[in-house]
């Protein structure tokens, strides 16, 4: 088939698979297949565990790890991203759906499927309208704080499975209270399974690889075996329960998992359910996208590849829609499994498609063997995975660098722990934006003078500079817009009222990136009032884009003074005596 | 009584009356009393009319013009502001309360009283916490658009009284549809009264003062007589209705107004009512404050006086609480009546207290005479007053200056007309903030070079400048923060990937007023990746406050290049050959 060039390029932009599949060869196939085997081994226990975390039947974890991976292989632009259920999104799913239905009911599962569908639609539409930039409004420290706090909540929520008791709650306090209330009914055998799995997995993480390397094993193989730790734990604990009939002693097991490929499912289209889930779906979409795109960018940079954020939205969006249509729940690109995929040598998104086949085979063949899998084992897998996300060092780091960033992070962590993920992350976003607006509404204004023997002007309070009593030069360190227009007026009047011999005020606009209509009106007002006081107003170093706009306004004709290209020109022109011919 | 100095100053800050009353003398008393008489004459028909506009019994307009004026005289800082019911706030009151109860019911009046109380609390708390700056987030064009659209809606809503029919609706379309549906039941006598009053008031506005001046009358007296137009219309139309028994021919009249001073009233404390009214109360508080403070500032500037915005919040807040406690509804400083007060010579807030006495006397003595006052007369008063607020010129003005401002104004006008005041103004605020954030998230970045024979650097695309192929200098025209941190990364990689001989990248930070934690992490990332490409990263013209913070981070030690005080120093140091000893 031969398409005209531009049409073909556009097709490739929307279907990245058309691009990489052109040069796909046997070498790439081998690399991708090896990576897929490793990721499959890692993903089986993870997908079961995250379904459990989301409060859903275990098989939904498998379903969410088949079709979504195929959709991402077609529409995604990252070569190494591994899509599927992840911890934070599963927790957010539980929080969103838990408001609407009881865990274990058909309504609960249906709501999770609908949530994936809405979230998929939101992501896809954002991608088609190129709204990827919206994700930039989550500041890095807020994300770091949110992930850390979510990790703490997730780990705490899994303690009930380790203890073999019932407990529930969205906030840390609720969870701990609920666990303490029921701790007397702890099942000792479950606790032993849980703690020993935990200890084993921690040891695998830290100690197994060095040990294997010590035996002279190839580093790559050692790496793979270390990653297979959870699968080992699953096998051993499942066999133990089966062999000793521990389920009859109160050890809770996964139980019957339907055998076979995912069924076709349809989301609910009830307006009521949609309006209840919509805000949660937005939060899940944005958090999922931010988490996924930052992993994808990190991995792409290592191989000098590029990802396209707007196309990534489409990739994740179609993945979530695929998840909803095949009985799954919200998915995104996971950090640890993508790194494993990358390290294992995945070269194209085909690795994801191969992983989907692997999980599909597991769903077809392995599910009967998982009947006796203790929930405590899955809980231990989750705890070990999320504790690696917990990193409170963002608190001292931001405290040291910027109190504003610190307060946003601290509030995000506090509110997430105290009131759950949805309130926590919403507050973090609003607070980041609010604090930014607050800062820009009270801009830094510096009175500047000439640095001797240069043409450079700096703050008179920080540097030894030359000034002239008849001339006040104010450098405004912010764009002028509605939120700070009045502040500038007040500042300026306060400054000129006290000193008497002032004849000229120069506003040095090197840091003014915009003057909006409100600020223009303020400048007109300032110009008029200074004129009444016999003071001329000048501007200097006005940037091109700002000047383009000013010339279309009356302000330029009404301005009592001049507009100078450089502040040095202004000083020479306005205080002739002080002119220096050479620095 | 002698208080220690600091305590007395603090008392005077919270009770401005203590300050101006110290020097109050007979001359000020005379001026204030004259101004009060004129404002009282103007305020009687206005307060009745705005009660009608808010859907409330006429006497509540009088009640809202007594105690609130006394409260403002004690706590307010403007010497000329005249507080009372105003058009836009009355319309917003009708919109807020209309969602909760039917006009004419006791619940409706009680909700309006409660709305005044909540709004008063919000304003007072904002004042005590010095949150006056929040009002800055309403951009001038958005306010102008909102007031214009509100004026159109108010004028349209009053047509029903001119026609003598029933009609209702919050949006322009609803109002017009409702009027057209009922237009066949127009009462001809009412229409004649309404149209002739309208014609008379428009003529008074434009024609009466020149006419009186033509007869050789003193300008001040002519001005006062022109302002008394509405009172004349009230007297003539009331007498006509009484004399000819027009009320028995279907002319709707104000009817029984209880005689006497306002009763003590208490707001409702039902949680349900509060939660229903809270958002409306916030909007009314902010719009009322912005309108009032801009009038107060304009008038204060004319006499070189200062107002304190945070204390103004307390003044307006206590006025609204006073209104709620005396059977009134939300009030604020009105534009036209404050200008009249100022022009009539008011020297202190005592003029407001005297006006309160005037309105109190009217409530005690005049109410029986207002029984036959036709509602059409009041409607004509409102229409003439609000049409002076309607000014669509903000649309071409912003279109010409900035499409971003234009779109915010156009949306505010469109949404206010189409969906009512609350949606209109909320959308205007959110859109202003959203567009500002969008702009800052995609900053202007200019590649700059040296303007020959200077030490000044400008955009290579706009100016004839000197550059060096091994050196790329990028001037970033925005503070670096979370919303644009990734944009800068992308921009920079795209720029350095194409050109080969680049050895140095200088980020010229003259317009960077802040680098937050997210942006710092991006800079660290950029530094690392450029290092891998063999390119050194430098900064120049970093501002004091930004530098203070950078030195507390790891970035400074990891930076591959240097930090230069001036961009010229950077060019000399990095491209030695190009150095010029003198400009």
Automatic annotation (TrEMBL), chains A, B:
GO cellular component, one term: membrane
STAS domain residues: 461-574
Record Gene3D superfamilies: STAS domain
Main location: membrane
Membrane spanning residue stretches: 27-44, 50-75, 82-102, 108-129, 141-163, 183-204, 224-244, 273-301, 313-331, 351-371, 378-396, 408-438
Record flagged with keyword Hydrolase: no
Record's signal peptide: none
Entry annotated with the keyword Membrane: yes
GO biological process, alphabetically ordered: transmembrane transport
Keywords, ordered alphabetically: Membrane, Transmembrane, Transmembrane helix
SUPFAM superfamilies, A to Z: SpoIIaa-like (SSF52091)
Localization in the cell: Membrane
Membrane topology classification: Multi-pass membrane protein
Name of this protein: Sulfate permease
Annotated organism of origin: Shimia litoralis
């Amino acid at each position: 088939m031969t398409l005209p060039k531009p049409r073909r390029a556009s097709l490739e932009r929307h279907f990245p698979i058309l691009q990489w599949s052109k040069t796909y060869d046997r070498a790439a196939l081998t690399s991708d297949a090896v990576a897929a085997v490793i990721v499959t081994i890692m993903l089986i226990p993870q997908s079961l565990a995250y379904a459990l975390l989301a409060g859903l039947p275990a098989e939904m974890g498998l379903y969410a790890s088949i079709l979504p991976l195929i959709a991402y292989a077609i529409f995604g632009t990252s070569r190494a991203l591994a899509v599927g259920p992840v911890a934070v999104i599963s927790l957010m799913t539980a929080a969103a759906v838990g408001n609407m239905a009881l865990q274990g009911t058909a309504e609960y599962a249906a709501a999770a499927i609908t949530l994936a569908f809405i979230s998929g639609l939101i992501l896809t539409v954002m991608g088609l309208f190129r709204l990827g930039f919206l994700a930039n409004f989550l500041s890095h420290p807020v994300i770091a704080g949110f992930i850390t706090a979510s990790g703490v909540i997730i780990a705490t929520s899994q303690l009930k499975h380790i203890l073999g008791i019932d407990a529930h709650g969205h906030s840390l306090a609720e969870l701990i209270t609920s666990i303490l209330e029921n701790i007397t009914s702890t099942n000792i055998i479950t606790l032993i399974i849980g703690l020993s799995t935990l200890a084993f997995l921690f040891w695998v993480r830290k100690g197994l690889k060095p040990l294997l390397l010590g035996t002279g094993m190839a580093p790559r193989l050692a790496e793979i075996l270390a990653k297979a730790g959870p699968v080992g734990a699953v096998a051993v604990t499942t066999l133990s329960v089966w062999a000793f009939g521990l389920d009859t002693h109160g050890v809770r097991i996964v139980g019957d998992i339907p055998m076979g490929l995912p069924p076709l499912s349809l989301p609910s289209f009830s307006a009521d359910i949609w309006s209840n889930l919509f805000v949660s779906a937005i939060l899940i979409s944005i958090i999922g996208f931010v988490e996924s795109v930052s992993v994808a960018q990190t991995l792409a940079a290592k191989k000098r590849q590029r990802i396209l954020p707007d196309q990534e939205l489409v990739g994740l969006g179609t993945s979530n829609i695929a998840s909803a249509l095949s009985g799954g729940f919200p998915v995104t690109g996971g950090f640890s499994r993508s790194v494993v995929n990358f390290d294992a040598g995945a070269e194209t998104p085909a690795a994801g498609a191969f992983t989907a086949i692997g999980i599909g085979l597991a769903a077809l063949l392995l599910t009967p063997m998982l009947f006796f899998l203790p929930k405590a084992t899955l809980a231990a897998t989750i705890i070990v995975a999320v504790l690696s996300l917990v990193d409170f060092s963002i608190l001292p780091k931001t405290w040291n660098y910027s109190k504003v960033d610190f307060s946003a992070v601290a509030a995000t962590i506090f509110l997430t722990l105290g009131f759950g993920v949805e309130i926590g992350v919403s507050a973090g976003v609003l607070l980041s934006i609010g604090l930014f607006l607050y800062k820009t509404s009270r801009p830094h204004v510096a009175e500047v003078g000439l640095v001797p023997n240069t043409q450079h002007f700096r703050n008179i309070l920080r540097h030894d500079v030359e000034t002239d009593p008849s001339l006040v030069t104010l450098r405004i360190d912010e764009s002028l817009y509605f939120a700070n227009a009045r502040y500038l007026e007040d500042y300026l009047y306060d400054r000129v009222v006290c000193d008497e011999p002032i004849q000229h005020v120069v506003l040095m606009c090197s840091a003014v990136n915009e003057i909006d209509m409100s600020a223009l009106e303020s400048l007109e007002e300032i110009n008029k009032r200074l004129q009444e006081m016999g003071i001329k107003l000048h501007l200097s170093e006005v940037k091109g884009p700002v000047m383009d706009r000013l010339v279309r306004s009356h302000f330029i004709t009404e301005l009592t003074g001049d507009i100078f290209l450089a502040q040095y020109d202004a000083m020479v022109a306005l205080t002739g005596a002080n002119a220096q011919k050479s620095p």
